[in-house]
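for the record, two folds in this file. i put them one after another cuz i was lazy. first one right below, seq on top, structure tokens after. the second one comes after a little note so u can tell where it starts
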Amino acid sequence: NMSEVVGKSIRLGELVYDKTTDNNIRYIGANPNNYVTFNNELWRIIGSFNNIVDGEGNSATRLKIIRNQSIGNMEYNSDWKVNNWAVVTLNKYLNGTYHDSLTEESKNLIANVLWNRGEINNFNRIASEYYKMERSSLTSLGNPSTWIGKIALIYPSDFGFATNGNGSLSGRNACLNRQMGPTNGWSNNWGSCQSNSWLFIKESWFLTSVYNICNSMTFNDGYVRSGAIGQGVTSQIKPALYLNNDAKIISGTGTSTDPFILAM
């Protein structure tokens, strides 16, 4: 069951508390044993997240997962003037055509939850600051600060909190106290921060948008930056979602050859 998985993974140093206000538990490192079968494919567990509210307002602890392989490169939105996640073409695809392609069993495992859409007004922040900004009410262009739905993308903070630095507690702490933006980012001498985060995906969209300009954020070479939307600009897409809180791990060890198996 999940409690046994968490206990073993914490002992192995693959799961740690992120020490945010929600104190979520996250998988860290270059390649932790967090593989899970979903939709008859390999996905990976980002962690166990507290205080995740569903569409009916019920708060629960839920597993958050991400597809292991990209489903391809796509635009964030066809209109460069709009980055409201509720209406962008990428959202419409993920929660329409893509969602409809999933197995019925997988669809039943997905939670319909509130996703935070606070925007970023400065890239040069540490992971915990990104976490706070993502959950803030700061938005622009009339965009709402939340969205309720099933399939989305990861946040900059997810990428940041997934590092284990150079494999030591002090190394992880150093990375978590290092700004992640283009000015003082996780590149050059700090490359171990990004190479030891299994969520480092070169050139990939984040859910979070940038304040007052029609860009959503991508990351490249270990730092967080803006990425133009529309105008034919595409980036990798790895769908992310939360599981229903009654989803259980019934077997598996979490390796890529023996992934966790889910059941309701």
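(here's the note) second protein begins now
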Amino acid sequence: MVAIGFASVRKVKGSKDFFVGGGKVPWWLAGVSHHVSGYSGVVFVALAAVAYQYGFTLYVWWAFPSVAACFLGAYLFAPRWARLRIKLNIESPTEYLAVRYSVAAQQWMAWSGVILKVFDVGAKWAALGMLLHGFTGLPLSTGILLSGGISLLYVTAGGLWADLYTNFAQFAVQIFSGFVLFFVVVGHLGGVGSIFGIWDRLPESHSRLFNGPFTPLFWWGSLLAAILSSNGGTWNLAARFIAAPTGESAKKSALVSGMLYVFWPLILFFPMWAAPLLLPNLADPSQMYPALALKFLPVGLVGLVLAAMFASTMSMTTSDTNTISSVITRDILPRTSRRFRDMNQKQCLLAGRLSTLVFTVLTLVIAIEAEHFGGVLGLIIAWFGALVGPISIPMLCGLLPLFKHADARAAILSILVGLAAFVVTTYGLKTELAMRVTAPIFSSAVIFCLMAWLDRKKAVPTHVEDLMQALSARGEYASPQPGSAG
């Protein structure tokens, strides 16, 4: 991974190459990267525990919403992100918000998103530390610092290109190791018939679509969160579309990612679903995947599975880190200090690399202290799943002509209401998981839509009308404009 990352340096001449690949990323590479960036060590820790305890519902509320989100986004959102770069020459997902709403709204979303991502990425490092501890007995902090240091080396050097190429290599490792464990488990359980036969041997609840705390209400929240996250609410995924040469190329990328979400989780999750038959009465379900690999694979293949987990987590964390550094460099620093305004491409590249370094160090500190924030599952499901909505609803809806009457007030108020709903349901009322995830998203969406409707008779600013036109198909092959939205 480090070698691939440093080999990518030759493609990075300035910040545009570092953050958005110069707008020249092939659709197939962006599609695979978009998909693999959705995995991390959390899949093999927190989600593996869910599969062990609750069964097939994991596919229903985690994988299927991502399928729907990618297919919807291929036609609704992905092409618009690419056209934004063509129209406004943006290099970060939040850069266009200054034009669409206001500088104040842009700063609200930029700062909120960066703070959220510190915790989100920190949780992923913590998950990888737990995996290393399960395989090798390494102390959590040692595993976290080791994996973080490796990732920092190559993403700081090669930027988005390093991230994309390593994502592709990482997915190849994950595919191979995933199939190995799948076939080993199928063989141990009695052959191909066990793929469907295990459900008769597992508790009846494990074959339900909804089980335990993962209720229909939770599913609706997960679906909306996936639509928002996969299509740009998770900024590193928006970067894959922004880096596409055209809107049509971005559309193909989203379709590739969606098709992978249909099939690959079925292979990856099967050993996790079968684990109660192979490892009954496991004391700590979060250590199930390492225990499964150690029991059924020879030493060399255990190393391959561990490498795949390393690869998955590094692909997601470096994707996040690169995009967050673009937001810090392009949107936050120029508004906080004059010295960062009017930077040329090389100066912006240096600032981006320094931002990457500082952000990564902060996430590693959070990872080491993860248990103070509710553990890995608490951080990912509760914090990110709940807060992605308030931040991303105005960002994504701002791309659509249907909401062109929504202004900066709608954007800021929807974020504040969503955050308030999260605080009330999590720390005030202390409601169940489904409510903590859905309330912030739905409340934010309702406020944004309501304010857009109330302002429906107000004149839309000329620059917003121009932006909406540019995001249509007619803006597909327009030449990039000089300057930046920031």
